[in-house]
Amino acid sequence: MRKSRPELPPSALPQDRRSPHALDLRGFTPATITLLAQRISATASAEYRPRFGVGVTDLRIMALLGAEPWLAPVDVSESTGLDKAAVSRSLRDLRAAGLVEAAGQPTGRRSLFALTDAGLVVHDQLVEAAKARERRLLQGFSAGEHAQLQAFLERMLRNAEQKFDSAHRPD
Question: Which domain holds residue 119?
Fold first, then answer.
């Protein structure tokens, strides 16, 4: 939450505090993508938690385990881009809810996780709900525009993942 400004007469505030290099966040692509991602996540959690008892982090993990069962937490973290602590908390909660099971060392980092039968049922319901949300988000886009948007986003993701050494770092 933003702190409100103290009640000072306008003449008491310096008027030259704006930078000539200030970003217009409305036209800055990373800010737009971040805002969109935050809105999508917040509304997804508000929809999924009451219906399925899971949030967006859980959904991402369950989606991965639905496609690739028996993964270690570190692999889940790397594949989803989620922080290791968030993955551990989510796996713990999903396990307590009976949606995920562990093989190997049940509390260790070498445990492998997969969806239970109940987890597969919830997963399939979540996938249906997630696809319906995607259709609503893409309303008004043609199939070609959707494909183009996906290609642009994938290209941006590849660009963001590139590791530049100091000799190749752009100025």
Answer: 33-134
